[in-house]
Design goal:
The complex is a heterodimer of chains A (342) and B (102).
Chain A lengths: L4 E2 L2 E4 L3 H12 L4 E4 L8 H4 L5 E2 L8 E2 H12 L5 E3 L4 E6 L5 E5 L4 E4 L1 E4 L5 E4 L29 E5 L3 H10 L5 E6 L8 H12 L4 E4 L1 E8 L2 E9 L3 E6 L2 E4 L3 E4 L10 E2 L2 E3 L12 E3 L4 E2 L7 H19 L14 H6 L4
Parallel strand pairs in A: 1-9, 2-3, 2-10, 3-6, 10-22, 12-13, 12-18, 13-14, 21-23
Antiparallel strand pairs in A: 4-5, 7-8, 8-9, 11-19, 15-16, 16-17, 20-21
Helix pairs in contact in A: 1-3, 1-6, 4-5
Chain B lengths: L1 E5 L5 E5 L6 H7 L18 E4 L12 H7 L9 E3 L12 E5 L3
Parallel strand pairs in B: 1-5
Antiparallel strand pairs in B: 1-2, 3-4, 3-5
Classes of the chains: A alpha/beta (342), B alpha+beta (102).
Chain lengths: 342, 102
């Protein structure tokens, strides 16, 4: 394993608020590392509504989730933040020198005097279908992602869902599977049209089966699936033999390991003060949707304000012997140098 | 108007709806366990409910956006709706809905 990374601030969450925090901290010469479970920055903005317009960002009368993310990335760029994507912040421990060590589920370790939790509602994780006993098959014969295609060679696969992931993996796994069935609750898809056409082509040539139905029950033993019960209003219920089930129902948000960081939580939110947006644990800040205080509004613009105040307080923790000089970007040549415009 | 809502544990109670508000907002504010992650933008499918027969037919048809988003919901049934897409109105007084499994 590589040695731990040492930096000024570790930020959990690369959504809009985490990105703006990089900017505010950067103006004060604080370096940031960000962790996010998604494979790209933007959080809910890019995962849930990349194409939907947002109308309440000050100064941007209309902006989509993706555009806002792109602009925040551009704004943060002079400060050269490091992104640790596709990994989940899994543990937080205090070191003897009062700094914090943040560990991710793939073993990245970041040591910093300040940790900023900008995790929104928590981590995006795959939705688990509400089928009795599905947990006992997970990892062995029920999978929520395809990491190594070879693992699925020669299998009798059932894929469920109607989005791009379900369609793409139906098309990609069809050549190596012994048998592959796609099951979806309707004869319509929210996937790229060429993928839908390709899937229908495969079905027409008998390379895959397509069933309009839903999965009602799983059958098997010791984590190994042998069949599922499918159902639809016409055929009622029937058994379908398969040894592998891959449901693709998108992602949902769970608080995840932050719940075990030992922070003061109120209904899954981190309680903070409104001067510094620091939790009751010194050095741990929470900004954006993940925090709570009297009068809290879950708006992106509130998170921006919280990031600015947090940065002032973080400065004093990271550089206890330095005086913070409050400056404006319009008039300060030193800030303009940092931004690369002077 | 009233909404007769059943939670995931099967408990039913009546909540007061407000004209022009979405059923999602009413249920969420009344303490039902509805994530509504996207805040009502028809972008996440975490406000999925089943609408009791008889009421389902009275609702305006599902938009393409809602149908697409229901693809990401779990345990979709013919009477599935996203509650952020149902607007409270006097005609819906007494509408019965059940919160779908998570």
């Amino acid at each position: 394993m590589s040695s731990p990374i040492e930096t000024d601030v570790a930020i959990i969450g690369a959504g809009p608020i985490g990105l703006f925090a990089v900017f505010e901290l950067g103006l004060l010469d604080l370096k940031c590392h960000l962790i996010d479970i998604l494979d790209r920055p933007g959080g809910q903005c890019t995962e849930l509504y990349p194409e939907k317009p947002i109308y309440d960002i000050p100064g941007l009368p209309i902006v989509t989730g993706q555009e806002l993310t792109d602009r925040l990335l551009e704004q943060a760029k002079p400060f050269n933040p490091t992104f640790h994507l596709s990994q989940m912040a899994s543990a937080l421990t205090k070191l003897d020198d009062d700094r914090w060590k943040l560990t991710t589920d793939v073993g990245t370790e970041i040591i910093a005097p300040v940790v900023v939790i900008a995790a929104g509602g928590g981590s995006f994780v795959p939705k688990r279908p509400p089928i009795a006993g599905i947990e006992s098959y997970e990892g062995k014969s029920v999978h929520y992602a395809v990491r190594k295609m070879e693992q699925f060679r020669g299998k009798n696969i059932l894929i469920a869902g109607g989005g791009d992931s379900a369609l793409d993996w139906t098309i990609n796994l069809a050549p190596i599977a012994a048998k592959l069935t796609l099951v979806h609750h309707r004869d319509g898809f929210r996937a790229a049209q060429h993928s839908v056409n390709q899937m229908r082509e495969l079905a027409a040539h008998g390379k895959i089966n397509f069933e309009i139905a839903s999965v009602k029950a799983l059958h098997g033993s010791d984590g190994q699936l042998s069949a599922v019960t499918l159902a639809n209003p016409e055929k009622k219920e029937w058994e379908h033999a398969c040894d592998t089930f891959i449901p693709f129902f998108g992602l949902t948000i769970k608080l995840g390991p932050i719940a075990d960081f030992g922070l003061n939580l109120t209904e899954n939110l981190v309680a903070v003060d409104t001067a510094k947006f620091e939790s009751t644990t010194p050095g741990i800040f929470a900004i954006g949707d993940i925090n709570t205080y009297a009068g809290k509004l879950k708006l992106i613009l509130s998170g921006f304000h919280e990031a600015a105040l947090m940065a002032q307080a973080a400065f004093h923790i990271v550089k206890p012997n330095e005086k913070l000089r409050f400056q404006y970007t319009t008039s300060s040549s030193s800030l303009q140098k940092k931004l690369g415009v002077a | 108007m009233k909404i007769v809502a059943t939670d995931r544990k099967g408990a039913t109670r009546e909540v007061e709806g407000r004209d022009g508000w979405s059923v999602m907002e009413i249920l969420r504010d009344a303490g039902f366990d509805i994530a509504a992650e996207c805040g009502g933008a028809c972008a996440c499918a975490t406000c999925h409910v089943y609408v009791t027969d008889g009421w389902f037919e009275k609702l305006p048809a599902r938009s393409d956006a809602e149908l697409d988003m229901l693809d990401m919901a779990l345990a979709v049934e013919p009477n599935s709706r996203l509650s952020c897409q149902i607007t409270c109105s006097p005609e819906l007084d007494g509408i019965a809905v059940t919160v779908a499994p998570e």
